[in-house]
């Protein structure tokens, strides 16, 4: 029985991970349950052994995406002097690699345009994730000596997400990289990180 429960938990984790990748790259309505299950190596019919409905999976996948965002924030901000941590965050978030890495990147630029049409539980999870990012960013800004850190965090987050989102829409990869490079340099200058 313990092996069966462990296997089911492992398969559920696989489904959630694959759903988080697919939702980032194809959007909320760009992927079916059958495709998600195929990506996880399972049949469509087995879906209901793990989830009540697609909405439940979407909410759990979004929570997983923001867990990854939390780990990214930890990697950038934890254990470094505040200004160095903020610079590392900007270097990672507004980078060529992150422009290319839609499938494994932050949920905010990947799904924000769809958030208002998400199922209620997914929308709540998405809003909580955005709030978590903003709160962590405000704390880092405060630790770095920035005034009005709450307002500044909203502005910086909007600029980061906007720059990454717009860069990902560009067909000219060189222009996309130049776009995030410029945004990163401007943010660093504004925050006194250069």
Features:
194 residues, mainly alpha, globular
Describe the model.
The protein has helices at residues 2-26, 33-39, 54-77, 82-93, 96-100, 107-111, 120-143, 149-169, 173-190. It is globular and about 55 Å long. It contains 9 helices and no strands. Helix content is 73%, strand content 0%. The protein has 194 residues and is mostly helical.
Topology:
Elements: H1 2-26, H2 33-39, H3 54-77, H4 82-93, H5 96-100, H6 107-111, H7 120-143, H8 149-169, H9 173-190
Helix pairs in contact: 1-3, 3-4, 3-7, 4-7, 7-8, 8-9
User: How many separate helices?
Assistant: 9
Gyration radius, in Å: 18 Å
Uncertain parts: none
User: What percent of residues are in strands?
Assistant: under 5%
Major pleated sheet: none
Strand runs, count? 0
Give the terminus-to-terminus CA distance. 57 Å
Instruction: Tell me, rounded to a whole number, the average pLDDT.
Output: 93
* Principal-axes shape call: globular
State the helical fraction.
over 70%
């Amino acid at each position: 029985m313990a092996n069966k429960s462990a296997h089911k938990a492992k398969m559920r984790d696989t489904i959630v991970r694959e759903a988080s990748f697919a939702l980032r790259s194809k959007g909320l309505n760009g992927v079916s349950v059958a495709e998600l299950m195929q990506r996880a190596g399972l049949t469509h019919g087995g879906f209901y052994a793990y989830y009540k409905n697609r909405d439940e999976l979407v909410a759990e996948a979004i929570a997983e995406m923001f867990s990854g965002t939390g780990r990214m924030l930890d990697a950038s901000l934890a254990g470094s002097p505040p200004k160095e941590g903020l610079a590392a965050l900007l270097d990672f978030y507004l980078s060529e690699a992150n422009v290319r890495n839609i499938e494994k990147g932050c949920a905010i630029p990947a799904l924000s345009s769809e958030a208002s049409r998400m199922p209620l539980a997914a929308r709540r999870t998405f809003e909580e994730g955005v709030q978590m990012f903003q709160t962590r960013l405000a704390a880092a800004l405060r630790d770095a000596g920035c005034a009005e850190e709450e307002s500044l965090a909203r502005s910086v987050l909007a600029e980061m997400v906007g720059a990454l989102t717009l860069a990902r829409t560009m067909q000219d990869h060189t222009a996309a990289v130049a776009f995030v490079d410029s945004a990163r340099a401007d943010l660093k200058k504004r925050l006194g990180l250069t």
